[in-house]
Amino acid sequence: SSIRLFAVVAVVGVGVLMPINFMGDQLRLIDFTDLPSKSVDVLSISNVLDGSNKLWLHFSAVYIITGVACYLLYYEYRYISGKRLEYFMTSKPLPQYFTVLVRAIPITDGGSVSDAVDKFFKEYHSSTYLSHTVVHQTGKLRRLLNETEIMWTKLKNLKYVPQRPSTDNPPKKFLGLFGRNNPIGKYQKRLEDLEENVRMEQSDATRRREIPAAFVSFKSRYASANAIYIRQSDNPTEWQTEHAPDPHDVYWPSFSTSFMERWISKFVVFVASVLLIIVFLLVVGFIQGLTYMEQLEAWLPFLRN
């Protein structure tokens, strides 16, 4: 759309406005000895007389370009929206399309997060509510999975390294000092131990401490969208809903943060961004000021000579 808008601006500017400006009389007395520096002014609006009716052509050109820009934005938005709808209608439905991430779940004394979620959504979304999954504190499981992934990567890289052919069995290590080491076997044994620990931790994960966050699934995309964009509680710090992330984009440590911690983090990021922009503008302004000889002479007096 930017290329189309630029083409329209070029046609209107070069084909209409420049000839009108050139036929103006404001700069009739031109010093042809200094024509290279004056020729651009002849083609600009400076050559149109004050109060001339030709100025309405400039105003009309602005309105035309604005209208074309609005139409191109509307056309591009409609085209992209159609593509998105076509993708959603033809693609295979994914669980995150029907799921909502709920944070800051209030818990009553003696109750659990799962009971609170089930009671709340059965009461207010009884016709569309399907199921829910509560987030548990599984820091140990995440560490085991990360370590398993690292070990599997090391083992995969070792298998692709060409081994030196040998007909004899490598001598075993004596007292841990002499002989050859077998890293593949060591990593395979370590990987098997990690997989066993992961299975044990997964079987025990549902008994870990619950975090006040849950993934709530609905029967339709429309129901999940309503749950996201409609406030669920009079208290804005409770029952906060947002889009469920893709399974590969979930950052589990963020679920244990409170509402105030997330708000403070966003505020700190906003302040840091503003300060960065201000510092950048100050530096750019200072450097641009150095391009003027008058400023250089004022700051560096020895340049006057």
From TrEMBL:
Residues 3-76 form the CSC1/OSCA1-like N-terminal transmembrane domain. Residues 98-253 form the CSC1/OSCA1-like cytosolic domain. Pfam families: PHM7_cyt, RSN1_TM. One of its GO terms (molecular function) is calcium-activated cation channel activity. The lineage of its organism: Eukaryota, Viridiplantae, Streptophyta, Embryophyta, Tracheophyta. One of its GO terms (cellular component) is plasma membrane. The chain crosses the membrane at residues 5-24, 55-74, 267-287. It comes from the Eukaryota. This is CSC1/OSCA1-like cytosolic domain-containing protein. InterPro entries: Csc1-like (IPR045122), CSC1/OSCA1-like_cyt (IPR027815), CSC1/OSCA1-like_N (IPR032880). Keywords: Membrane, Transmembrane, Transmembrane helix. It comes from Aegilops tauschii subsp. strangulata.
